[in-house]
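Quick start: load a record and inspect it. Here is Phosphatidyl-N-methylethanolamine N-methyltransferase:
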Amino acid sequence: MLVDFSQASLWLALASITFNPTAWNVAARREHHTRWLTNLCGGARQGCYAIAVAIFSMGILRDALYNQALNDQPSAPWLDNSLVRLVAALLFISGMTFVTTSTYALGITGTFLGDYFGILMKERVTGFPFNVLDNPMYVGSTLSFLGTALWHAKPAGLLITVYVWLVYWVALQFEGPFTAMIYENASKNVKSPELGQKKKKKL
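Running the structure step on this input writes:
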């Protein structure tokens, strides 16, 4: 048996993977339309920092549930060798590199949905890792899941990794167009410099 579907930890991990991007997208969209977090936290930046803490905390819980799910799953002898572990280490390091450098390049507000709070980027980030990938944070996270699965020689981890990428792909179908709409609307609302308003911000 490659995957033990009777383990509750497997389903908890999948539930967490599903819940996280769904929850932060719903919360952020509601913020954009109603400013509920801005009002609750006393400012847009404070609200963005609050959702950043929530997303980061949910990510830690998700990773803990994932690791527990792997511990409860059978290992595969054909994955348990030094070559696979080398590939696993390279994938994990690459994934974490993409995640950490994305966060550094975007900053806290750029990483954690500041656009939805009206905290817009002044210009598109084009340096590494965005000159390599369009969505380096999602790709990096997926690579980290894959590397962990291979390191522990768990076929269930490979299945979970496929599900992770599917969830991220769905999330991007909502996030991408909505973020583009935010910047498009912002550019339409900016008057010319002669009228004393702010310069147009570019995504």
